[in-house]
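Blinded run. Sample ID left blank on purpose so nobody reads anything into the name before looking at the predicted structure. Input follows.
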Amino acid sequence: MVRIWNRTGARRVAICIASGLTLGLLILLLVAADLDDEPAIAVAAPQPPAIGRRVVLPPAPAVRRGEATGGPGRSGDGDGDGEEIEVCGLGFMPREDALAPAVARRMTEMDTRLREQVATSLQQAAGVASAVGIWLESANAIERAMAPFAEREQACRQSADCLDRLDRETEPAREQASRPLLDALARSAVASTDPATYAVALRACRHDSLGPGLPGQCRLLTVERWAQIDPDNAVPWFHLLAEAMARHDDAAAEEALYRASTARSSRLYGDALLATAEPTLTVGFPGMDGVRAATEIAGIEQAWAFPDYDAVIEQLCSKAAVRDSNRRQTCDALATMLLDRGSTFVERGVALRLGRQLGWDAARLETLARETDAILAATTDAMSGQDAENVDCPSWQHRAEMATRRSRIGELAMAREQLARSGHSIDELADRQARRRLAADRAATASAPASASS
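Blinded prediction complete.
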């Protein structure tokens, strides 16, 4: 688990890959499930251009611990006394012992040592892998700097004001701990013409755990420079568009929108960090160490920021805006580009929302919606049973394998593989997803009065 300190809300953001769910999938469940209903969601709300906002993932489906390795005398099916479960790295132990705080502390200590070793190894690699290693080490440095404040953080958990005061007090310590590393990362990025290295450095520097503004050498990094060295990638243009809208620069926003719509790719780079680090992990971290190391890097992937697509959806390509024929053409090209070249669920969700606002043919929208539901159903089925509470080694390994595959080929490509392996037709899976959505809606409706009364 990678913990990222953040001033805007929660203190340490725990991006937990163990659940197997990605932020993009969660957003798409809300955005594109039913194109006949206007989704009440800002697509990019969890991922603003000021990189580094809190990400909250819902709990994974309830699955009993030990199910993945259930065996005679070990993680059996019963809940009786004496049942043993595997805690990867610590062996088998009674369930009640596995739930003890002392075991959690031991696992945290193991993860901390491993994360430090991974950061050191990656820094000795080249290119993007080295940049990831420096970023990971900066997170480690912040974690060490924050250790003395742990008890106060625990005491403040019930008070937002207390947490805000603690954040202000600890900000200098966070900055002092991470600045030398981020300065080194920024200098290496400035000297590089590799877009992925530059994107990693910019993402690390713009994480708002360091407060407003960019400290030290991080000031040398700009989204404009990223777009210059990566002109055929839509992502930096989306970031530039959001910045232009924020400063009310209509001409710059129009140019960025056009450049994004004509881009030949849409590459975040942050969703392929594990694939980049894989050669180093394979050599330096055999066995379960490599599995756990993979989940650390996957945690950074999950914390990666998407562009803020709200300005596009709600303003530049709104139903009113696309009444202008030139704007309609640009927005249509943008939606098509995201649909054809995007590799994430978020990009697909944005494309479908834009298509609806553009008035795409109803049959086309229906086909895309059915395919989307089928992908969601197949992905949900593949993740079934992969609860974060399963801490046995086979569960860790399965999650790492899924994360590695996703990093190599992308979210949507992996989801389509799962769709092909499911043995079901698109219509069968789409109907299954529709039933799940209906059940979830009914459950939400039933729980609303109880929540309001409490």
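Unblinding after everyone has recorded impressions. Residues 265 and 341 are 6 Å apart (CA to CA).
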